[in-house]
Each structure stands twice: as structure tokens, then as C-alpha cells.
Amino acid sequence: MTLSDSSVVTRRNRRRASSAAMGFLRFAVTALTTIFGLLVVTFFIGRVIPIDPVLAIVGDRAPAHVVERTRIELGLNLPLYQQFFFYVKQALTGNFGTSVLTTNPVLEDIRRVFPATIELATIGTLIGSILGIPLGVLAAVKRGSIADQIVRIIGLIGYSVPIFWLGLLALVVFYAQLRLVAYPGRIDVVYEYTFTPMTGFFLFDAIVQRQWDVVWDLWRHIALPGALLGYFSLAYISRMTRSFMLTELSQEYIVAARAKGLSETRIIWFHALRNAAVPLVTVIALSYAGLLEGSVLTETIFSWPGLGLYITNSLQNADMNAVLGGTLVIGAVFVGINIFSDLLYRTLDPRTRSR
């Protein structure tokens, strides 16, 4: 290699490093801005909503001096900007205050209930991915056919039907009439005192402990809400898979593969779907994040003791520390999943690394 070639390679490496550094910087600024915006929104929601946090703690009949002392202890007597800085400092250290409803630290409550939401959202995403991707591929390959129309109708229903109505209908049919699933909740009362969870993920814990009767009971409880969330995830994933596959099937490399005599099965599943899988990673990640933050109604209908039900109960009892803490956690998780999906997308698709 000549000296000029070496200098060219060095400059190219420097440009790549500079581009990667700028990309990371933009990424970090976007994430920090989003988190800061979330802190601002939740702070002002807590101040605008017509609920006095002091009265929620001490009660309506507390003496005036108790109310005033509590207000000072909470820092609510300070100017608004000082309250905001105090709020940000507490939130960044994981101190969301104490729940009025449970009298526990909010972060402790979130650690207790969030695994149930993660478990439910994971089941829903797995169902949506396992069924949604093949249906999307089928709709793209059979474009304009009856199969395509059926898949599109399934997706349209998933987008249009309110989840609370579909959940109530599912309970009437599969629980009240057919008795195929267990009653709402996460675990039967028989096992509440005999099963000892280790991680908070009940299915995982029961499998590790080889308590197969508990596994079966847990599955009978999670099957219906998981299938419901899976259906809504399926509607989104199948629609996006169809769109990505239609784009790939119109590319020149597909025409070249057919000209070479490759089988249609190999072209669809090993070439077109392989390239469509890169943006699908982002779609599945966003679907998972959406189930984590959007399972409030599902958890309420099925009495699923997750973060959504915790926030709902806290809101009904004017427990704003719990509401705002849960909202911040969900927002932070959503941002984290977005960052992870973007990094994974850049890793799988080298063309995006220089952007």
C-alpha cells in the first residue's frame, strides 16, 4: 500500500468515526430531550390537576397547621421553578414519593407490579409476531386475492374495535359460557400462599420451580388477556409486514432471482422476508412498547395486577405520586425500547450507519 492509499484510508476511517460520533450525539440529545419533556409534562399535570396532594395525604379534616407543615415538607410552598428542580432531582434518583393507597414507596410498588405487565405484553407480542408475520407475507404474496382481503379485514377490526368492548365480549364467551379460561386475575387463590415467586415473573418462576399445576393455572389466567393484546399486535405487525413485503417483491433482485430459476418459496422466505425483517425489528419493538404502555384497559378488565391497573387504582384514589411515578417509568421504558430498536436497526442495516 502506497503512502497516498494509506492517507485515503486514514481519512475515510476518520470520517466514519466522526459520523458515528455525531450519530451517537444526536441520539443522546434526542433521548435526553424526550425524557426532559416527559418530566415537564408530568410535573405540570401534577400541578394543574384539581387534586391537592397535601389533602390526599393528611385528609380533609386535618388541622390547618398539619396541612401547612406537610405542604412545607413536600416543598409545595416554594416557587414553581424550584418545585420543578426538586421534582427532577427526586425523579432521577428514583424517589417518586410514597403511595397514599399502599403507604409504600412508589418505586417499590412499581417493582412489584411491573413484571406482571411485562409478562402480559411479552405474551401478546409473541402471539402477534408468530401469527402476524406469516399473515402479512401471505397477504403480500396473494395481493388482491380473497386471502389478502381477509388479512386486511382482520387488521382493520384490530384497529377499529375498542379493546374494552372486545375484552368484555371475550370474557362472556370464553369464561362465562365456554369455561375455557380462568376467572380474571393472575393466579388462583389456592396457589397464592403455596407458590413463592422469585423474580416477579410468575410463569418463569413456576417453570423453574417445576410446579406444573401452577404453570397450568397461570396459563389459564394469562391466555385470554394475552390473546387479546396479541390480536391487536397482530393487526399492526401483519399490516406492516404486508407493506414491507410488497416493497421487497417489487425490487430488481427478486426479478433476477426468478430469472435464475429459484423456487418461489425460497425467493419469498429466504430473500424478500430476510430484507423485510430489518425494518420489522423496529415494528415489533414499537408494538411491544405500545403494549407495555397501552395495557391499562386490558389490565382493568381482566383484573391483571400490573402497572396499568396500579395506575388506574391510584388515579381513582387521587394518589398522584403513584400516577406520575408510573407514567414516568412507562415513558422511560418506551424511550429505552425506541433507542434499542434504533440501535438494532443500525446494526442489522449497514446503510443506515452513515446517516
Describe the structure.
The chain crosses the membrane at residues 21-45, 120-141, 153-176, 218-237, 276-302, 322-345. The protein is an all-alpha fold and 355 residues long. The chain has 2 domains: 18-92, no CATH class; 106-352, Orthogonal Bundle (MetI-like fold), CATH 1.10.3720.10. It has 14 helices and no strands. The protein has helices spanning 3-48, 53-58, 64-73, 80-92, 106-141, 146-160, 163-177, 202-208, 212-249, 252-259, 264-294, 296-301, 307-316, 320-348. The protein starts with a helix and ends in a 7-residue tail after the last helix. The model has no long low-confidence stretch (mean pLDDT 84).
Protein traits:
355 residues, mainly alpha, MetI-like fold, 14 helices, membrane, ABC transporter permease
**Unreliably modeled segments:** none
Q: How much is the average pLDDT?
A: 84
Tell me the distance between the termini.
29 Å
Q: Estimate the strand proportion.
A: under 5%
Helix proportion:
over 70%
Number of structurally distinct domains: 2
Class by SSE composition:
mainly alpha
CATH superfamily of the largest domain: MetI-like
Let me know the largest β-sheet: none
User: Count of helical segments?
Assistant: 14
Succession of helices and strands? HHHHHHHHHHHHHH
CATH topology of the largest domain: MetI-like fold
Query: Gyration radius, to the nearest Å?
Result: 25 Å
